[in-house]
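so my prof wants the structure for this chain in the tokens format not the other one, which i didnt know existed until like an hour ago. anyway here's the sequence
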Amino acid sequence: MGNPKAFLEIHRQEAGYRPIHDRIHDFGEVEQTLNTKERRAQASRCMDCGVPFCHWACPLGNKPPEWNDALYKGDWELAYRLLNATNPFPEFTGRVCPALCEKSCILNLIEHEPTTNREDECAITEAAFREGFITVHHPERNGKSVAVIGAGPAGLAAAHDLNLMGYSVTVFDKNEAAGGLLRYGIPNFKLNKTIIDRRMRVLEEEGVMFVFNTTCSSNGSDAILKDYDAIVIATGTPTARDLKIPGRELKGIHLALDILSQQNRILAGKEFSKEELVTAKGKDVLVIGGGDTGSDCIGTAHRQGCKSVTQIEIMPKPPVGPTDPNNPWPAYPRTLKTTSSHEEGCVRRWNINTLEFLGKDGKLTGVKVQEIDWKPNPEGGRPIMVEKGKPEVIKAELVLLAMGFLKPEQPKLAENVFMCGDALNGASLVVRAMASGKQTAQKVDAYLRK
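here's what i got, hopefully its the right format
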């Protein structure tokens, strides 16, 4: 702890976002960065707590007190080594992680001004790439091979660790490039895809092999995999939750990933026909679902030139922070989250049930909804939904369904086949997927060593 008084003298300072009038016209990353002096000052605020709850909260077991201290002292290379020891891809989590560590920071409990761990993490990693601190490892091979099915964060983390253990690792993926939802779900304005490409080059230099445009089964029984000593299934949660109500067949209703993945592919240079194109240009847009995916749809709709955006959520409005009485510190508070996309303009409504899609000549024109309320279930379990308001119509020419993903059924696996990430646990955070990938790599290693 280089400066024991910093947390008393220095307030939390976030880098903030680019101005709204500027950022909504492109898909460049919206988040800005602090200069070196300000970033080191923010790192100095870490109190190096005797019981570091940030370490407790991080699924990867990151150690912010250690790398924040190195950052404050100006040793950027040591800071990266300490960070990379637990986190294989800190440039990803430094951009898209909700920072569980910050919510559990004691400064968040006392002052609601936690250390800027996520931004510090991103700055450290960018400095490491910029200054050449990224070391390419060439591990000695042990003669055994592992196939990883799925190149999302879980699969990549497993491949990264297994490769460094000496296994010959081949990653198979159904898409044309690596990243999974990092590439095809998260918009470029949150994570520029050159950041993924940069890390993939490192993995390839270290010996990880990639095979794209190849679909494998969810149980690893494909003939193409028969010669591998072990198989890791990291196929994520491919099935989005749909909304089967009257009018679902109308043109203009899409799953969220239809627009998000297509827009990312367009930015990568792929072209789509007019019939294939999913666009919000000039349209009133309704996003159904109040989570991060819905927020990403809002930001994408603005950049495509929509007329308006409304977001509805069937659950009640979360408490306005910073604290959550039902989920107190150091657990992550389930409080109202306002993203950069929400700031760009959006009508947000809660306790809204969707009844019917309305249209004319086969095209969507509006959505019939109704305000509802939730009452405790006398038998316990899920609360009971009850009608509250009268049905109304929200005008919309484009509806984006962002209601999450269905947890895949667990197939029967051979003893040399392992599952990780969302395929195992259901849809969750990128950082949890990476942690699961690393844990599975350990299990594979233990199995192959027997």
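also thought this was worth mentioning. The first helix runs from residue 6 to 9.
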